[in-house]
Amino acid sequence: MIVERLRVVDRVSVQELVEATEASDMTVRRDLDFLAAQGVLKRVHGGAVSAMPSGLEPPYSLRTQAATAAKQAIAKAAVEHLHDGETIVLDSGTTALETARLLHDRAMTIMPLSLHVAHELADAPRIRLLMPGGEARKGELSLVGPLTVASLRALRFDAAVLSPCAFSLDAGLTAFDLGDAEVKQEAMNVATRTVVLADGAKWDRAALAYVCPADRPDLIITDESAPEDQRTLLTQRGVLVEVAS
């Protein structure tokens, strides 16, 4: 909530955060200190100011702790659309990682686009794990570059499960990293269907690199915090929108 607040205002105070979260003063100060150590904000007297430019991707370690309940619910809904025997390309990102954890005991062929996801599935007994080439981005450990794109182009998949950095009706699916956007585009091109995982915090936002129009995916799985009017508009455009609870 602190990070989301600092995306729309220049400064937050400890007192307003205590009132908004009903957490203790000590808890709020501890969370601010943690975020400061991550480079997300700078501590000032009585609160904090953002230290993260709008075009900068939030650290992976921070995102693993954000909206975890929503991501787990979305992942649980996503695996219901993936069937044993299918070939799946599974994106990078924290929601994709939650999905990988639920696929551990399934019988599928999966190409992970992240070393985090690959590590999660490395010892899965019935998963055939196909590793693409490419460069692992620092911190993110997502795989990007011409070797990753070439690996995707050599194959065909039943489904691409993507986790964009941001999503809006106007800007479509977007990513912070140009290479990441290119890999997501290629994953869609080589898959029969595309499933997008986007919790409500990603809606009505845009990042630097364009991936595809908002109505390009076949299925978007989100949570109840996603704007209802935008969900309705997407449904009218022919996109299946599922709200995970």
TrEMBL record:
GO terms for molecular function: DNA-binding transcription factor activity. Pfam families: DeoRC, HTH_DeoR. Residues 1-50 form the HTH deoR-type domain. PROSITE patterns: HTH_DEOR_2 (PS51000). The keyword Chaperone does not apply. Transmembrane segments: none annotated. Signal peptide: none annotated. It comes from the Bacteria. Keywords: Transcription, Transcription regulation. This is DeoR family transcriptional regulator.
